[in-house]
Amino acid sequence: MNLLELGLLDFSNSLAIQERCLKKLEEDRQETLIILEHPKTITLGRNSQDSDLKQSALSLKENNIEVLKIKRGGRATCHMPGQLVIYPIMKVIGRSGGLKQFVYDLEEVLIETLKHYNIQGKRKQNSAGIWLENGKKIAFIGLGLKKGLSYHGCSLNVENSFELFEAIIPCADPNAKLTSISYEAGKNISVDEVKEVYKAKFNTVFKTHFNITKNK
């Protein structure tokens, strides 16, 4: 499986890379895991409504915050430095268990990553993502499918601030409370450190290994 570690990259460029990886997957069946961070960005999924934004898109853009409508599941979410973002470009249709099992496995990687830091994550019925026992959400999942292949993916709060989330209703939940690995651990934990843990857990859950590593 190919691995792309792209550092801090704007959303539009990351989407172009995902499209290239999708094409490659169609041509030679090489799956790719993309790991990166984004500058401050708000994305609106296929089911988003105007009310998901608490501020106008124009005022946000004036503050150098991108607001993008994209073809993933879910509603509004935010990205910013300090948040680990993962895009699995993988075959879903035809995989054992199909889409339901694929999402379950993505959640399992996140749960196992959190366990490494003695943080107990859990699923919530009929909602994609990971929550803690205190009700706070720590990870998000919003996938897109094209010809049975996945793109877009997951984000995990590591050492990011939550200020930008105040501009939206996260995942259509006005009462959403958020947290991060660093906050729960009571100390600063870097994205680079968590990234290495995540990669190991991904390989275990998906029973794969990374045979090509490319950096930005």
UniProtKB/TrEMBL annotation:
Pathway assignment: Protein modification; protein lipoylation via endogenous pathway; protein N(6)-(lipoyl)lysine from octanoyl-[acyl-carrier-protein]: step 1/2
Keyword field contains Transport: no
Organism: Desulfovibrio litoralis DSM 11393
Enzyme's top EC category: transferase
Summary of the function given for this chain in its UniProt record: Catalyzes the transfer of endogenously produced octanoic acid from octanoyl-acyl-carrier-protein onto the lipoyl domains of lipoate-dependent enzymes. Lipoyl-ACP can also act as a substrate although octanoyl-ACP is likely to be the physiological substrate.
Annotated active site: 171 (acyl-thioester intermediate)
Gene Ontology CC: cytoplasm
Pfam families on file: LplA-B_cat (PF21948)
Location in the cell: Cytoplasm
GO molecular function: lipoyl(octanoyl) transferase activity
Protein name: Octanoyltransferase
Family statement: Belongs to the LipB family.
Keyword list, A-Z: Acyltransferase, Cytoplasm, Transferase
Gene from which the chain derives: lipB
